[in-house]
Amino acid sequence: MEEEKKKEEKKKEEKKGKWDSIVGSTKKYVTLAKEELIRSSKIGKIRLDMTRIKKQRAKKFQELGERCYQLILEGKIDVEGSDSLKTELDELDAQIQGKEAEIKEIQELSKKESEKGK
Question: Is the CB of residue 86 less than 8 Å from the CB of residue 72?
């Protein structure tokens, strides 16, 4: 009888040891996952900050370019290759004006059609 009790206690201890091992491993992996999530979140936030800063930088370059372009038009500065760039910009401006005219035309047609329906 006593031997059976010892065997049973030994089994209980083995089960408890296995359970403790499982719980310990789970806690370890949860902690590692938490640390990785925190690390990834920090990296994500830094990347968002970098994107915001890059957009600000690009905007400043755009402002600088627009100021330089205005100075070129005024003849205050001369930049090598600016003539071809000015020509390209003029062509793009013409395309923009064409698209704006298309929009206006569509809006006017829409307005006329809606007036007919009344």
Answer: yes
